[in-house]
Design a protein that fits this description.
Elements (H helix, E strand, L loop, with lengths): L14 H28 L9 E4 L5 E4 L2 E14 L6 E13 L14 E4 L6 E2 L3 E4 L19 E10 L7 E13 L8 E19 L6
Parallel strand pairs: 1-10, 3-10
Antiparallel strand pairs: 2-3, 3-4, 4-8, 5-6, 5-9, 7-8, 9-10
Amino acid sequence: MTVAPTTEPERPTYPEARRARTWWWFGSIGAAIALVIGLVWVAGGFEPRTDVRTEVTPGTTISTGPYELTFDRATVQKTRHFSEKRLVWEVVVHGSGRTTGDQAIAPSSLNWFTTARDPGSGTVLQPTMQGFRSVEQGASGGAFFTPGLGPIPYRLTFQFSGDLPMPSSIDLAVWELELRDRSLLQTGELDWARTNHVSVYPAMPLQQLPDDVS
């Protein structure tokens, strides 16, 4: 007797399950887009750029938010990126700073309010790092400005690509800060944020230092 081959019965497809998976997929994409839009909004990315520029000379003190900053000279040196080891033009801007507030504070690397522009290439960078007190003193005393004290040495480091020609000057910009609720949900928590007023040290000359590419 011949037994007819058996076949696995076809599983039913439920339209409701397909619709649920489709809605879940579109919901995930929508949530991701909303998150990106929210982050850009918090950073001010959708605000029109109508910066009010004031040019200042090296040695001029700029008051911004809880800081008073003064920059008077800058150097450039061919060296290697501090972590990636590729060749860069390292620009270090020297000056001093202090806080006018009543608590220890330092500019946040998550919300820089300073930039450097290479006039030759048009490249604009935020600082790679900041330093407090002189290099010889190292980090003693803390990496912040202490309330009630006078100005202390302060420097900003920018690392331009080594593929560019050596910059001979930079435009150093310092934005004015104000207390503002930068949260997406407007929780009322205030934080220092950039305004559209910016002071610029235009064409600050760079002193070239010997290469250090070892």
